Structure formats: structure tokens, C-alpha cells
Amino acid sequence: MERPTSELDHFPRLLRVYQILADSKEGVTAKTLSKNLEVNVRTVYRDIKELEQAGVPIWEEQSRYRISNKHFLPPLNLTVPEAIQVFLSLRLLLQYARRNSVDVASLFLKLKKIVPVPLQDEIAKTSRWMQDLPSNPRLNRNISLLAQSWVSRLRAKILYKSLDAETATSRMIEPYFIEPAASGRSCYVIAYCLLKKEIRTFKVERIQSVHITEEKYEIPKEFDANRYLSPSLGIMVTSDELTKIKLRFKQKIARIIEESVWHPSQKLVNNEDGSLTMTMEINESPELVKWVLGWGDSVEVVSPDWLRDDIKNQTARMAAVYSKTKHF
Questions:
Q1: More confident residue, 11 or 94
Q2: What's the domain count of the chain?
Q3: Does residue 55 sit in the same domain as residue 111?
Q4: Mean pLDDT throughout 18-22?
Q5: What are the tens digits of pLDDT across the range 271-319?
Q6: Structural domain of 258
Q7: Structural domain ending residue among the three candidates 71, 98, 121
Q8: Same domain, yes or no, for 124 and 145?
């Protein structure tokens, strides 16, 4: 008899199906999976389908299931510091995305097998924490397909609904880079859009579907994602034009500002009154405005005037909201 299951059972079981299929060279029958997992065969079929929807290439041959060998890379020998860097990078990604992922969970399991016991315990705790996070199979699948399109240099046809659009539009894109961004708590695809005939940035959550075509493409040799993104404070590159920004931070947060590199172009000057002056040369973008607003009254825009006026107008509108009667 199939044991009772709950929502919390689902993700760990899905990961076990993935690991069993990954470890099997000859394939595993649904009946064997059913017995090992203590669930009925229908549940096994549902789990296999969900893994496929997440982008895992599962093959069926003579009623045996296995994962395509092309899905795996050659073994990688890591030092303990390198493994810790991978773990911390995954932690950072999870802190922003707040979603569970079969790929991340699988990587945690692989790391756990090779690291010292103290780190094994921390990986296990993070894995358990991730199991309770919401899942988005469509998002996971789209990221996987976009990654495949990118590394194989095959054009992808996407259905994309931009922020201000009422309906989604079909786009043929050539992915140049996939970049995570803290500002949007998401991943973005930097790609050449054949519809707009220019490089565009697509937020993955707004992509409704991805289909990899057989059409090859080449990324221009002169394209460098690091250089392309360098004018921006986040992910949105509005133009090649740079603006010199000058900000003055109050003494109470001057040390916080000094402790981090916010942009490669930043220059910091300590003032006699304990305040801190920062200058940067960056793009004009909504991300810049949001970043400045995030420091509240601890920062003042010295220049340019357009940014100073924008912040002044936005704070005035915020004050107007809070001067009204609270809505319940």
C-alpha cells in the first residue's frame, strides 16, 4: 500500500527520482521506482513528467527510464575553499530567488558527498530549508532551455510578455548571456532580438514559453557581457552614454558605503564632517533611482540636477501617500 504523502514529501521524492535515474546506466522501470519510493506507479509517472517539464532530458527505452548522458559534465575536482565558494554562491542565489530547484538541490547533494562533515551539515540544513520554498516548474524549465540554447548556439523562440504589454508576443532571440540580478530578484537573458533588431534584456519570469530551434547563430566576438553591463548599476543598460553622479552620504552610514563596491567606477572621499562623497559614471536608469531612494534621508543627490529633481518629486509623492487616511 502506498504510504500517505504530503506536500513536503513531494520535492525530496522528486529529487530521489532524479538521483536514481542519474545513477543508473541501464535505466530503471517505473515499477522499481515505485517500490523504492513507496508510492504507486501513477505517482512515479507524474514525477518523471515533472522532471521533464523542468528540463531534465529523460529517455525511455524498453520501459526503462534514464537520464541522457549528455545532461552531465565530466567530473570536477574541487578543493574545500572552492566547494565553499560554490555553496555560498548557491546560498546567495536562493536568498534572492526564494524558489526551490531540482538542479540546485542536485548540486547540493553532489557537494555534500565530497566536503568535510561540518559543511555537510550546513548543506543538509540549506537543502531542508529550500524544500519549503515555492516551486515554479515552468520557470525552471525555461531557464534550463534558455541555457541549452545559449551554450549550443541555437536560436530560441520565446513567448514574452513585457511589463507594460497586455498580451505576449512571439520573439526569436539569440541568447548572448544569462545574468542573475539582485535588483529584480531574478535572472535575465541578454539576447539579440530578431523582431526589434537589437540587443534586448528579457526577464525570465516574463517568458511564458521557450522552444529551441535548429537555427544556428554566432555571438559577435566583440560582445563582452561584463563590458556591456558595466555602465549599469544593475541589469538594465539604457544606452552607451554615461552620466557622472555625485552623492553625499551622512556620517551614520558612511562606513557601510565604504565597505562595499557598488560600481566599478565609484570614487569615495571622506569629508571633514564625517560624511562621505561618492561619484560614479553610470547609465541613467530606474535602478539608479531606486537604489538612491533605498538610503532614505541618509543620502543627498548633489548632481546631476535631473536626478536630484527626480528624487525630490518621488519623495513628495511618497509623502502625499502617507499623509492620507490609511486604507484597511
A1: 94
A2: 4
A3: no
A4: 83
A5: 999 999 999 999 888 888 989 999 999 999 999 999 999 999 999 999 9
A6: 243-323
A7: 71
A8: no
